[in-house]
User: Fold Fructoselysine 6-phosphate deglycase from Cohaesibacter marisflavi.
Amino acid sequence: MNDQVKNYGLEEAIAAVAARGTIREIYFVACGGSYALLQEGQYVVDREAKSIASYGYSSAEFLSRAPVRLGKDSLVITCSHSGNTPETVAATEYARKAGALTISLTNLADSPLDKATENTVFYEWDPLAVTSKHNSVMLLLLVFGILDKLEGNSKYALVSKAVPALHDMGEKLKEKYAAAASEFGESHKREPVIYTMASGSNHSTAYAFAICLLQEMQWVHSACIHSGEYFHGPFEITDFDTPIIILKGLGNARKMDERALAFAEKYSKRLTVLDAEDFGLEAIAGEAAEYLTPIMFNLVLRVYAVELSDSRGHPLTVRRYMWRMEY
Amino acid sequence: MNDQVKNYGLEEAIAAVAARGTIREIYFVACGGSYALLQEGQYVVDREAKSIASYGYSSAEFLSRAPVRLGKDSLVITCSHSGNTPETVAATEYARKAGALTISLTNLADSPLDKATENTVFYEWDPLAVTSKHNSVMLLLLVFGILDKLEGNSKYALVSKAVPALHDMGEKLKEKYAAAASEFGESHKREPVIYTMASGSNHSTAYAFAICLLQEMQWVHSACIHSGEYFHGPFEITDFDTPIIILKGLGNARKMDERALAFAEKYSKRLTVLDAEDFGLEAIAGEAAEYLTPIMFNLVLRVYAVELSDSRGHPLTVRRYMWRMEY
Assistant:
């Protein structure tokens, strides 16, 4: 165990998948912010895998669906920061019992999740700094490592090569967006509702900001709108005073974000636009850049959340229910 | 074409799948309300299929992801009520070009979607009545018909047998909920935000009510919360005056809804609870009942939406952007 902690378990987990022989499908299963994180991995498999199916579920939904297919050709990747989210531990145990191979990401060794799973990948997580052991980084290395091992995937090398540059890029971005974030906090401190919008690799980032940062940590009403779905219902809510945070991604999905932004700009004066093209990811990761955008969006959005919480006098650490009672 | 219109194309579509031989995966692809509808089918495959993978995508996201796996062993089911949703027509053409078998649901013969697809299944749709050709009914018969043909599925017979009873059940439910719906409309007419919450087969119903009925047709802020995810962020938004419409489903998922409701009841005085156990579906469909719950929830929720729109003096037909301009 100690050795595994030391090297974070990444290589062992990838080797366990390779040793398994046939993996026909990968399930990404977690709750809340960890679920949003894993969807970054599910997106990679969805876009890149030549023959492997992939699914994303909130842990309770996974247990409820109890897919008949689940078995020895399945890989189930779960995640819990504390390692003690009951639904995620239960999902991991359920998957293992069904014969699936299990890999779990967590920050905490010897946690219930670490004990329930066959292969643990440990990560570090500082919401305001990207290290080479950052949760999203470890997830990307795991998923691309698996794809490369099972099917061959040239983007594994691109991602690996980009990792060392991420920390400094993040530090620069925090500086770059500091003034805009402060302005956002002040100008949005009385908003009762703030929407987020994104697509592709960043949809789960926008989802996490809506449910974890705004609803959970700020008690501000929010919903994540998919940039493509925007035109099929949600756009009717757009008005001059409707606040929407729009993430412009890279790759194929960018077109969806651009179209949504072009429309929203005409009818709302309360847009906050963050553009992944301003991050510099294409220079360090080439064709794999779109998979790294959530890392930088999460970092920059955290700076915005900190400023909003300061302006509102409502610390991000305050909870009224979570961890404070049985539920 | 005329013959196909006459018999709605259902048997032909199922036969086309059977004739195909190998179907390894089914994609459910549409926009907005049609996307929500198709997710009812995706849920069935997810729960029931022994070896077939299934995915749900908004049409633009499907085109953007451009899954490498898509090919001759894939079935792509698309849907557009008018048959002229550009992204869905494009998704159908894309899938067909990739070698996938295509089946499309629509209300309109000779529409662009009808022309783009290989197999059309026509449906009827009255938001306030469930006929045996209702969109959800046709979708369920299609999906269970396919599963039964490819893998054998005993619930196809259960669903088929239940269909003739749905119309009268719907009529009775409209009466049963009339007073409660009217009270909901009056008591919620000044709410700026109304949440919906559900899980399992009804999650997409709650999603549709949030984005199509509340955001699009009432310009009321809304978000669909997953009952299982509720405890991992969104529940912190719960307060004595937070309005949430909670759908209690059947089957495995019911536990998630019950847990969320038990918590929400403690802290909000503004809950609206609709319980599928009050519909009588188990008596007519047995173990397949959970798959029919969206049909009745959609109907009852429509009655609630009509009452809300009456109380607000904001007809459900009003749009400020949709169909009124280029976007």
Observations:
- The longest strand of chain A covers residues 74-80.
